[in-house]
Amino acid sequence: MRYGLWILLVGEALIFMSPDHSQAQVPYGPGGVPSPEASPSTIGELAASIRGLGPFRVIPTLMVSERYDSNIFAFRGVGGGQRSDFVTDVFPGARVTHSNDYIDGTLTGQAIASFYVNNPGLNYVGAQGSFTTILDKMSERIVRGLGLRLNGTVLYYPEQPSFVGAQSVQSDFIRGIQARRNNAISNSTSVQSSYAVSPLVQVNTSYSFQTMRFLGQTDFGDGVARLPLFNMTTHGATGGVAYLVSPDHTIGVTYAFRQMMFGSRVGDSAVGESFAGRSFAIHGVNANWSGTFGREWRATIAPGLSLASQVPDRILWTINASLSWMGQGKSASVSFSRGLFPSFFGEAGLLASNVVSGSVSYRLSQKWEVTVGANYAVNTRSGTGIGTGRLRFESVNVNGALRYAVYRGISASLTGSHGDFTIEQGATTFNYDRQVGILMLTAEWN
Q: Which terminus of the chain has fewer Cβ atoms in its 10 Å neighbourhood, N or C?
């Protein structure tokens, strides 16, 4: 149920905020209801002060789609078979924007309701959300040259996507690992700051908090052994300095720390070793370079090393690299990422994760636009020196979308995706594929 749909959802950036994304401010008492003891004059003064903060814009949105999913359980069925279905999805939501002399913020929220034709027992209601708060105006008044911003996402959904679009918020849990369909809630919140020491030197820091909680594991009665799932919590912090070599080129160095903590195991019949209750600390150092070439090309590269604090400690080479091009009505990008990331499906542990992604977009006319993309990931325990036995996840996804602007604020799209997944654990290998096709209508009352 995911690939094209997820890319569309994140690309439209319509989301509802929660632990990771939303702290709605209410002008009155709890729940937005005026306190009984509040006098009319007090309420009027409070309302006036709220209006003085600046305008709030509320933009209602609605997305309706009809979807074909060849593998609704995201796993291999009995005898290698898999179950397909047609699904109707409805996504009512809204986006709220606010700007004043101190902050600029966006809060998006969206409910999700899905109805299955052949498997009505799988019908569900979920939600997703996000928020972005830019506090540069306020922090600049306190300390000249200081920038500060917060952002986050939250998702309550029957499954976690193995890949997302390049424009969406990334997390440690989206690295090509496709877990079987299970209800889960996940969120990712980050705080980023920067300080301009001089016109040429800037110090950057950040902190991130990510969680994933699986809400039980369903037995679908297909005879397939249930691989265990592991709740996850990660903390991350970075600090570094960047130097402006020229107007178009920047170099720097960054130190990064991450702590990954595996919580309780969800599911029966554990396969292989289990690291539930353990945590891993990772220290990393990267050299950074970014540059622009003309008005169309931009490139970044950040090679480095990561140390997993284990017995014995193990060092792994890492890299983040990207190249993007943007022309008149068309764009293209390619990226490669390698690092240490968690395995939350099958076994709890650290994996050396490698992900390659690419996409091309072309605007055929003022109303028509086409996009194609591909992702490839290999996540393996080999080379990390952590644990014994074979553990490997490999996944491939190709997708495409054709969009048509029907009217101002109204658009239609046709998307399709194909994914191949392989799980190797011990002496067992699982292979399965998935095809998803979606016809979607999106309306935004801006």
A: C
Note whether 84 and 128 are within 8 A (CB): no
- Inter-residue contact 441 to 63 (CB < 8 Å): yes
Give residues with Cβ within 8 angstroms of 242, minimum separation 6.
Answer: 201, 202, 203, 204, 250, 251, 252, 288
List all residues 6 or more positions away from 192 whose beta carbon is below 8 Å from its beta carbon.
Answer: 148, 149, 150, 151, 204, 205, 206
Rounded Cα gap, residues 390 and 71, in angstroms: 26
Structure tokens that stand for 17 in this block:
């905020």
pTM: 0.79
DSSP secondary structure string for all residues of 65-102 = EEEEES-TTSS--GGG----EEEEEEEEEEEEEEE-SS
Distance separating alpha carbons of residues 171 and 234, to the nearest angstrom? 10
Domain segments of the chain: what residues?
Answer: 3-29+39-444
pLDDT tens string, the chain, 446 residues long: the values are 334 433 333 343 333 333 333 333 333 333 333 334 444 455 555 455 545 556 789 999 999 999 999 988 877 654 445 689 999 999 999 999 999 888 999 999 999 999 999 888 889 999 999 999 999 999 999 999 999 999 999 989 887 777 765 444 457 777 888 877 888 888 899 999 999 999 999 999 999 999 988 886 666 555 556 677 888 899 999 999 999 999 999 999 999 999 988 876 665 443 333 444 578 899 999 999 999 998 899 999 999 999 987 656 788 899 999 999 999 999 999 999 999 988 888 778 888 999 999 999 999 999 999 999 999 999 998 766 565 668 899 999 999 999 999 999 999 999 999 999 998 887 888 888 999 999 999 999 98
Determine contact, residues 279/257, Cβ cutoff 8 Å.
Answer: no
